[in-house]
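Can anyone check this?
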Amino acid sequence: MNIFRGRVLGLLFAFSILAFLVTGYHPGAEDDTVYVTAVKADLNPALYPHDSDFFKLQLRSSIFNPAMSAFIRTTHIPVSWAELLWQFLSIFLILAASWTILRQLFEEEIARWAGIAMLAAMCTLPVAGTALYIVDQYLHPRALAAALILFSVSGIMAGRRWVAFPLLATAFVVHPLMGALGVSFCCILTLTLHEPLQVRLRELWERPVAEYTTSAFIFLPFGWLIEPPSPIWLKAMATRHWFRLYQWTWYEWLGAIGPLVIFWIVSRVAQRRGEIKLARFATAILFYGIFQQAVAMILLGPKELIVFSALEPMRYLHLVYVFMALILGAYLGRYVLRAQVWRWALFLLVANGAMFLVQRQLFASTEHLELPGVASQNPWLQSFAWIRENTPTSAYFVLDPNYMVAPQEDNHSFRALAERSQLVDAIKDTAVISKVPSLGPTWDEQVSAQAGWTHFKLADFERLKSGFGVNWALVSYPATAGLDCHWHNDLLAVCQIP
């Protein structure tokens, strides 16, 4: 039977639009410094002649950028519109997959739609201590992988386990970490649905942790994990506080353990009500969380295992948070919202309004929807656009290494939006070093050379030009005396280094 009939598709489409509007759209922000930059480099090899290793090497294990590049070449859709299309499609697929799960767990249609409404509102809910959202404000392969995993989960629950294999394999090559976590959850879900509970418990706890981790290493594309960490790698990793599990705050720990307590309660309540599939689903999430939490605490504990922190094992919480939003939303629909229009109106207003206001604070200096073809009023994005349209593709820029956290910048990427090479930054490029330690010496040398940026004089820019070959600079306005400036706004100036 086709579960995606006209009415269902229409409502899923409507909730996808609502989710998109609440989440906002900010292409080129944060991790897009790697993903969209790699796509643009594939499409135009003349771009980024000086620094391509800082986004290409991290993506060696993913098909995301070649697949996106192939899609753009085939359809002739501009990059900006293709990214927008796939961002919306990612949200729609996540909600559609979630619907197929909810319809197997809850008989009441009102509960199913409440679950979808909750997830749609909570797309930008922060996942405790992991620097993740359920869905990012820009196209990220993690969202596509999540949709594939959710469809896999639905197939397993429906007794069609064969469906999960190609979907999980695709999720793995799109986003290896998400794919591996998806495989982990689907294996536990299969055991939970098809084996007696006592046997499952005994097998899960008697099996050595080493057996799981050894099996996982077969799939890891990072051979450097077996090498001792370098001082530069440790320096870069020190900037990523969420890698250090035992330094988390109490509320981050609450965000990690709290959902597991919730699913323990759900499993007990569902069992009493005779909702066997829901009880087993909640139990599977509980087992998955306990197992992954134990692995994370082992790998992120001893200093001798610090190299494994780059695997970010606590990101298992991403799936847990997706399921938490769905189940709590469904319970809200069943017991509180029901068929009362005014309750639904209040719920949608409060949930979506609160998340919208949070997003406006996060991107306070930028339009909520950065749509293609619409000029931005953000001074940083104005400078990036001028550089993209008026400087040669071979231009090599230097700018404040901490520019992504500068006032009004709102974490947008120079590489992704200006489409020019730059000396490394001290914010996002550290994430690349965590996955590609071989770039550490280059990163450290360039970051060190930019020390004292706020006090740079002409001689400092000439030193960088002599040492690294940079020939353009994005600086504060009014610019440093002696630079040959071609454009400026009230905040920034684009200048050549003589």
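Reply from J.R.: I decoded it. The CA atoms of residues 72 and 79 lie 7 Å apart.
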